[in-house]
Write a structure and sequence with these properties.
13 helices; 8-stranded mixed beta sheet; globular; 11 strands; 3-stranded mixed beta sheet; alpha/beta
């Protein structure tokens, strides 16, 4: 299993021309860890055409059905604050280069690189499956996290509306939910969210990586701009939705100097909770992020990677519970202290698991779902 490799000496055959990957986050489409080796881009002999950036066709997004038989994913991780989650989509068109969900595409035999942001899978039956799972005898409610892996409000949600359908089920069952997103599309569902907020059943968190639009465009090319995310925070808070901000990921020598500014901007718009996460580079993400640095900030690439190793005991990533979100060492400790001071000055609560104060006692299986379940 490959977790970190040396930078290639010559041209990387999996790297696409800039025109072909325009508007995408990853630089290459290198294979996942279960593939036998590199899959170079096929050369049919038309070198002058293949290498002409002006002629290279841009990658298009495709969506296939995800035929999973279950929709609630369970975990026992002690440092995430929830034990169950729903992700309506596999892959994410936002294209955030740092996304820790990228390695999951390797399970599908696809690349965690450009495949992850162009070859998407949608759980069209998620709402119906969820209703059956919630109606099962013995189910005990606790907050469900939505958007814990891929963004539930990525662009394809505008048409497919799977996340909205899932929220409709949770609303009917009086089931608590937390949502993490970068997208202003969440405001489409204010009617449902407002109803649930009145019953203390929902909390929302908006992720803000940077306030610099140019950096955001490179880091997360198809996600909403920073001003749009701040406006989304303000609109959620104004609608009575308990809203938090997640300054994540903090990347040493790239955006970590913005942490206090991000927290302050969000606090001014009504958030009640805030958190941060240090950049995580598990599995294939280490290689993908190195490529991204060399393509976009080559003068800082080695410095950023060196600082990352300083926060991960000499490696680019350590997966231990309790430290994987925050790192170790002097640099990580300084970031932690800055966060604590900023939170105290702004009067914000730590985000934690994001589910504090949500009610579990209102949960009830609607009569229609109970009767339908009894037929099977």
């Amino acid at each position: 299993m490959r977790t970190e490799r040396e930078a290639p000496d010559g041209p990387d055959p999996t790297v696409l021309a800039p025109q072909a990957r325009k508007g995408r986050g990853a630089v290459s489409n290198r294979p996942g860890r279960y593939e036998p080796g590199e899959r170079p881009l096929e050369d049919d002999g038309w070198d002058s055409v293949q290498k002409d950036e002006a002629e290279a066709p841009p990658l298009r997004t495709t969506v296939q059905p995800d035929k999973s038989k279950t929709v609630i994913a369970w975990n026992e991780s002690p440092d995430v604050g929830f034990d169950r989650s729903i992700n309506p989509y596999r892959g994410c068109e936002h294209g955030c280069i740092y996304c820790f969900a990228r390695p999951t595409h390797a399970y599908l035999g696809l690349s965690p690189g450009l495949d992850f942001e162009t070859r998407l899978f949608a759980k069209h039956d998620a709402a119906a499956i969820l209703a059956r799972e919630l109606a099962k005898p013995g189910y005990k409610p606790a907050p469900i996290g939505i958007g814990t892996n891929t963004d539930p409000y990525q662009p394809i949600e505008r048409e497919l509306r799977i996340t909205r359908q899932v929220l409709e089920v949770l609303d009917r069952f009086n089931h608590p939910v937390t949502i993490v997103t970068k997208s202003a599309l969440i405001l489409r569902d204010l009617d449902i969210l407002s109803r649930m907020a009145q019953r203390e059943l929902v909390q929302a968190t908006v992720s803000v990586t940077t306030l610099d639009p140019d950096l955001a465009r490179k880091l997360e090319p198809r996600a909403p701009t920073p001003p749009r995310r701040l406006a989304t925070i303000e609109a959620l808070a104004a609608a009575g939705i308990p809203t938090g901000v997640l300054a994540a990921p903090m990347i040493p020598a790239l955006n970590d100097q913005e942490m206090e500014a991000i927290l302050a901007a969000a606090a001014a718009r009504g958030v009640v909770r805030a958190g941060y996460v240090l950049l995580r580079l598990p599995l294939e993400i280490a290689d993908l992020f190195r490529e991204w640095l060399q393509a976009h900030v080559p003068d800082r690439a080695e410095h950023v990677l060196s600082l990352m190793r300083d926060t991960r005991d000499g490696k680019l990533y350590r997966s231990g519970f309790g430290t994987r979100m925050r790192g170790t060492g002097p640099y990580a400790e300084l970031l932690r202290q800055r966060y604590r001071i900023a939170m105290r000055k702004l009067g914000l609560a730590k985000r934690g698991g994001g589910a504090q104060g949500l009610r579990n006692d209102l949960f009830a299986v609607p009569q229609a779902e109970r009767a339908q379940f009894e037929l099977f």
